[in-house]
Amino acid sequence: MEKTTSPFSTLGLSDALSAATEALGYTRPTPIQQQAIPAVLFGKDLLGIARTGSGKTASYALPILQRLEEERWVLQNRHVPVLVLVPTRELAVQVESMFKELSTGLSDRPKVMAVFGGVSINPQMIGMQGVQVLIATPGRVLDLIGSKAVHLAEVKMLVLDEADKMLDLGFKEEMDRILALLPRKRQNLLFSATLSNAVNEITQVVLHKPEVVQVTDEPQEVQLIHQRAFRVAPERKGPFLRYLIRSMDMQQVLVFTSTSQAADHVADKLSKHGLEAEAVHGKKSNHARQSALSRFKAGKLRVLVATDLLSRGIDIAFLPYVINYDLPRSPKDYVHRIGRTGRAERSGEAFTIVTPDDQPHFKVIQKKMKQWLTLEGTEDVDLHGV
């Protein structure tokens, strides 16, 4: 029987890596994977502009794994050949998981490790021995460098993932310090959801004659998201949220709030009314965040309440519902939030609660998105006893 060619092998990937994509259920490359993978394999610098959920992690993880297998760089102890910088712990864990899953079929699997703050540095320092792919938040990699647990003088490939988010979170100074420690000759890959002035400045410094891949078209997945918006009086927001979850029998729903305090408050209220919920945000310990995320992904936690800090770090296949309890600051964050659902060609539903004071800002969000929703009234909804 004639062997069928994997859509990924046509991009230049090895049989082992193409098989890994099939095992993970990837039927065909996404637009950014189709354009980025050959460029990275060719050794070019790359600027990738694409939203979260576009498949960008695999677009750099796959060619990096192949380059590691082909090049077999022999470096001094604790000198890493590949450094991936990310803005949050959640994204670090997610990227680490992707590298490990994609490398399962390789004859010589590289050692991959994610490091981030909020946990003890000692196990990370010990674990740095023999690491080939280091995925790190900027502050923690500088801590490890200061402790001489890792060295960047021989980095062959640098990835800045979610560069816009790293700059938004104030990591520019740390990023500059890290860049100063890297060798001049290296391959650089920079990914961002947007090309802001700040990202453009970093691009000018980091990238050399880059291949530019810009996936700006609204992906098919967003078209699969059914959006609804409800006009709700401020004092009815909590009861209406509970009504929404119960009336639609939502068993796995991600709720977004504007602040950590609001996330805690909403999760507490839901739990007190018999809807099991937990909050995840930057002020929670790493263990608490990972535990809540794991339970939610496994379907053992009904409601996860999160802030925008985590909107890009939560990757859950087939998440059916997202609710905007509070509006995000920008249309960009709104897209990232609702983009947690309606993925992998499955339909999803996104609901937004809008108070009268929110309406002007919600109009701005809709105008930027070029999508207009009918604001549904809720005055007649009986919320007593909800």
Short overview:
The protein is of the alpha/beta class. It folds into two domains: 9-214, Rossmann fold, CATH 3.40.50.300; 220-377, Rossmann fold (3-Layer(aba) Sandwich), CATH 3.40.50.300. The chain has 15 helices and 14 strands.
How would you describe what is shown here?
- The chain is an alpha/beta fold and 386 residues long.
- The chain has 2 domains: 9-214, P-loop containing nucleotide triphosphate hydrolases (Rossmann fold, 3-Layer(aba) Sandwich), CATH 3.40.50.300; 220-377, Rossmann fold, CATH 3.40.50.
- It is built from 15 helices and 14 strands.
- It has helices at residues 15-23, 31-41, 56-71, 89-102, 121-127, 138-146, 163-168, 172-180, 197-206, 220-223, 237-247, 260-272, 286-297, 331-338, 359-369; strands at residues 46-49, 82-85, 112-115, 133-136, 157-160, 187-192, 211-214, 225-231, 253-256, 277-280, 303-306, 321-324, 348-354, 375-377.
- The strands form 2 sheets. The chain has a 7-stranded parallel β-sheet, sandwiched between helices. It has a 7-stranded parallel β-sheet with strand order 10-11-9-12-13-8-14, with helices on both faces.
- Helix 2 runs parallel beside helix 3 and helix 14 packs across helix 15 (359-369).
- The longest helix is centred in the first third of the chain and has 16 residues, at 56-71.
Low-pLDDT sequence parts: 217-221
Helix-strand topology string: HHEHEHEHEHEHHEHEHEHEHEHEEHEHE
Provide mean pLDDT, rounded.
87
Structural class: alpha/beta
Write the CATH homologous superfamily of the largest domain. P-loop containing nucleotide triphosphate hydrolases
Q: How many independent structural domains?
A: 2
The protein's oligomeric status is: single chain
Number of helices: 15
